[in-house]
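re the bet — no i am not wrong, look at it urself. input seq straight from the record:
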Amino acid sequence: MNKLSENGTAGLIWYSGTVAHGLRNGRTFGYPTANVTAVNPPLTAGTGVYAAKVRVGGCEYGAMLYAGTRPTLGLEEPTLEIYLFDFEGDLYEKTLQFALFGKVRDEQQFPSVEELIAQLRKDEQEIRRKLRTEN
């Protein structure tokens, strides 16, 4: 967590959205996510996993953002989920702002939930490294 700063954020598009209740799958995987709805401006980046920064409650957090349909879970409804690094607290019904710092990988279907979780761990490590170099 960092106090809000404008360092390294020039030229980024900042989106805003409201956190809604989801299916809580991320929580069972060890990655509790904020399910973001009513995104403004509309996110047009495409499906996949992205490095992101999130602003909420006067603080800025590194984050892993997923946009897609969760094919490994057999779901088809598009969703936008954000896992905030080193965050503890309740985000339900709160508005947050987020910006993308690059795509990590495309959406993909894994043979098992265990393989999905293993990939999420790799994604998290890569995103943490990427965000460290951005600062």
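see?? Residues 113-134 form the longest helix (22 residues). told u. also The radius of gyration is 14 Å. so pay up
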